[in-house]
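Q: I'm writing up a methods section and want to include an example of the input and output format. Could you take the sequence below and give the corresponding predicted structure tokens, formatted cleanly so I can copy it straight into the document?
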Amino acid sequence: MPAGTPGGVLRRVDYIPENDARAFANNLFRTPDRVRKRVGDMVLVHGGDSKGRRPVRSSWAEPKKIKQVVFGLDSRLGQKAGFRRNEQFLGIKPRYFIAYPGNGVRERLVIEGKQRRISVVDRRGPLGTPPAEAALKAA
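A: Here is the clean output for your methods example:
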């Protein structure tokens, strides 16, 4: 068992082809740029953790001097932490939110947002594309 690996499990790092990584990055920046054109007084709200797309979004917002609000996870809540963060987010009554690929917590946020008539910019398709666009390409 290699030292430093829990239970001897080695983690595999997925390889992302350069073209796919570039397409994902372009979609990641293009979408908030488009939303910002519609919402001049945009505030970026995110989870603030240091993994995934959140640091990338912060790096998009900082040079544009876009205000940021962070709703971190309360680890004391365990599996309910993500749902609590969703409640906080929806509680500020956003006009738009961008949904990138995620898990069931993200899916619940999209459902609740649509029920509250919040404009959801859905980018949960492959490489951060709109799911409808991905379905057309697959057909």
